[in-house]
Amino acid sequence: MNKENDADPTTSNFIREIVKDGIATNKQEGHICTRFPPEPNGFLHIGHAKSICLNFGLANEFGGTCNLRFDDTNPSKEEEVYVQSIIEDIKWLGFSWAGEIRYTSEYFDQLYDWAVCLIKKELAYVDDLNADEIREHRGTPTQSGRNSPFRNRSVEENINLFASMKNGEFSDGAKVLRAKIDMTSGNLNMRDPVLYRILRAHHHRTGDQWCIYPMYDFAHGQSDSIEKITHSICTLEFEDHRPLYDWIIKNLGIYHPQQIEFARLNLGYTLLSKRKLLQLVKEDHVSGWDDPRMPTISGMRRRGYTPESIRDFCERIGVAKANSTVEMALLEHCVREDLNKKAKRVMVVLRPLKLTITNYPEGQIEELTAENNPEDPKSGTRKVPFSRELYIEQEDFMEDPPKKFFRLAPGKEVRLKHAYIIKCEEMIKDRNGNITELKCTYDPDSKTGGSTAGRKIKGTLHWVSAQHAKKAEVRIYNHLFINENPANGQGDLTLSSGLNKESLEILQDCKIEPSLLDSKPGSRFQFLRMGYFCADLKDFTPDSPVFNRAVTLRDTWAKIAKQKK
Ligand code: ATP
Ligand code: MG
What we know:
Blueprint (H helix, E strand, L loop, with lengths): L13 H11 L8 E4 L9 H16 L3 E6 L9 H14 L8 E2 L4 H13 L3 E4 L3 H8 L16 H12 L9 E4 L14 E5 L13 E3 L1 H11 L4 E5 L6 H11 L5 E5 L2 E3 L6 H9 L14 H7 L3 H11 L6 E3 L1 H15 L1 E3 L1 E2 L2 E6 L8 E6 L9 E6 L2 E5 L19 E4 L4 E9 L5 E9 L16 E2 L2 E2 L4 E8 L26 E9 L11 E4 L3 E5 L10 E6 L4 H9 L1
Parallel strand pairs: 1-2, 2-3, 8-9, 10-11, 12-25, 14-20, 18-21, 23-27
Antiparallel strand pairs: 4-5, 5-6, 6-7, 13-24, 14-17, 15-16, 17-22, 18-19, 19-20, 23-24, 25-26, 26-27
Helix pairs in contact: 2-11, 7-8, 11-12, 12-13
The protein binds adenosine-5'-triphosphate and magnesium ion (MG).
């Protein structure tokens, strides 16, 4: 791929420029502090990786710090398993946060006091309207809202009612605390937004201590403020919330971080929304959050993607203000480029066809030398056993080949990788006409160092010695959705109808070279000519090896980039 064709990362990130300018004008006394604030209501996906790379990346680049804060204000959807998975994923991506992990729930006391503070300033009130009535009073973008009949309660009454809400004297939903701003504002977020609601739900950290919980908008800005975040970076949908963010902080008279919005990542052929991903898991369309087809960090890890390739991808896509969809081919390109440098080359036959070399001495075994990675001279060599009976790939033989087929065919010659030139003499078919075996002869002098080693042969095939081969399961993954843009025009109910029924193909009888039995779960390989694969993190054992295809060898991105040029 032509690097010059990529957007230059140092100019494609406008937030970097804002941070630089701030430092130049000494706005933050030289220190920047960012944060990554996940809600623990699902596993992280590649969109979160973009935010992680941005927040931790800026802190690293400018000698600042980045906090990890769990935004845990909605106990009905949040769970400890999600907290643990998020921690694991951030570490795996290669980032570390400043100090202890933070939780918005640690600020609940302070947030309560701040709510009281707004009540005292006559900037908040307890409302008895229910959710439907509040919605109905809010108005629409073209029609201004109406004041609640409870809007003019006295400070004293509000303080008492709010305390009673906290003390559990009202049922869920019976009352809320609202900011008193402006029901005629052109920004719906400013029409007396709800700040607190009553909710009896067990919280994964505070247990049953609270029965009122702050809304996101009444927790996020103040949490940023408490932590002295300099740049509070979030996605575009919060742009309309910024006036409220600023209003709350200004009226509380506390430290004021700068909120900056950027476009969220959308990726082709998949969905990036925890809610929808949870639906895929719950409805068993995938095996779990870490199914290798999922766009989650844990799914990608299991599939064989590297943290380096994901970070490279996040750098290349840049950061912009306009929403767009990034091609999956670019992510795959990054994975391929990284694995090309790192992955050990091995020989695996995915769909085996037996091949016998009739003039090779029966019982003879040779240990041939094979290089581990031509891209990395330090990776050395290994021994691969060769014998009279081998397996090759079914698709590498054609009885009646077209002109440019440089693989095996009756009467044709090919080279076996790291070994000899062979010639196909005969094919054996079963009763149904299926080819079951090939009989070949070999040229004994055509091995490296032999007198005919330099003979020009167009095709080179990978192979495995039948007697030494081990059986393995290989899982081939394809796009989870049929359409490049599955989110378009699809409500929840039809999620499954857009699924690609061929997103997983399981090959049960693959033949792997014996060296692969020593693999550790998670180790990555290039199966020569077949793609990049990873020993499955959960299911691989030496007794029953399982590999996942991370990515094919063919680079569709290079083609796309060329066309765009
Ligand atoms: P989802 O819609 O998938 O649940 P979210 O925004 O609700 O995502 P959070 O846990 O609140 O998820 O997100 C933590 C951080 O990650 C936020 O700052 C959010 O803006 C960012 N983020 C989430 N999705 C994306 C995305 N697709 N691209 C970039 N950043 C994202
Ligand atoms: Mg969210």
